[in-house]
Design a protein that fits this description.
- The chain is globular, with a radius of gyration of 16 Å.
- The protein is mainly beta.
- It starts with a helix and ends in a 7-residue tail after the last strand.
- Helices cover 5% and strands 51% of the residues.
- The chain has one domain (2-170): Calycin beta-barrel core domain (Lipocalin, Beta Barrel).
- β10 (146-154) and β11 (161-170) form a beta hairpin.
Length: 177
């Protein structure tokens, strides 16, 4: 059991040091989200975010679930995050469990993941059926007990407008070691 716990809560000692850039996601989180609908009104949602190390501590998986007014998931999926040391780039993929699609979140075409010490940002092209072609995701206000995820949309990849803000708070209980 201890070996399993280590794998969930700690990176492999031989994993790339860059893996620590997303280590803030490790653990159980609850969140409140505000989403701007097409008519410009802000709607409130809530959900959970659960992050842990996978593949013997060489990668991070984080499961995201947003609950709608009916109590059912309206967003349900998992991010897979791994650092390619040879290319010095992040590979981050989103698996949308509700429609069975994959999205590349850190394409070189859009500059990959960018870290400035205070925040993490990446741009990705939306999948089929999206209301806008480009999304920019930014993680800010990162601490041991909180982080903010901000989503911005764009039709051209140049002019951005905020469409969602997710305030995440670490759930009570066992914290990662």
């Amino acid at each position: 059991m201890d070996k399993v716990e280590r794998k969930l809560n700690k990176p492999n000692p031989n994993a790339p040091a860059a893996l620590s850039q997303f280590a803030f996601l490790i653990g159980r989180w609850r969140f409140d989200a505000r989403f701007k609908s097409a008519d410009g009104e802000w709607q409130a949602f809530h959900g959970t975010w659960l992050g842990h190390y996978i593949l013997d501590g060489y990668a991070i998986a984080d499961e995201y679930q947003m609950i709608g007014p009916s109590g059912k998931p309206i967003v349900l999926g998992m991010n897979f995050r791994v650092y390619d040391s040879a290319q010095q780039v992040w590979n981050i993929k989103w698996l949308n469990a509700l429609d069975g699609t994959w999205t590349d979140l850190t394409s070189e075409q859009f500059g990959g993941a960018r870290f400035d010490g205070q925040s993490v940002t990446y741009v990705f092209k939306a999948e089929r059926g999206a209301q806008w072609p480009f999304t920019r995701a930014t993680y800010t206000n990162i601490s041991k007990s909180h982080f903010t995820w901000r989503g911005e949309k764009s039709d051209d990849g140049k002019v951005w407008s905020e469409f969602m803000v997710v305030e995440c708070h670490r759930s009570k209980g066992k914290k990662p070691s």
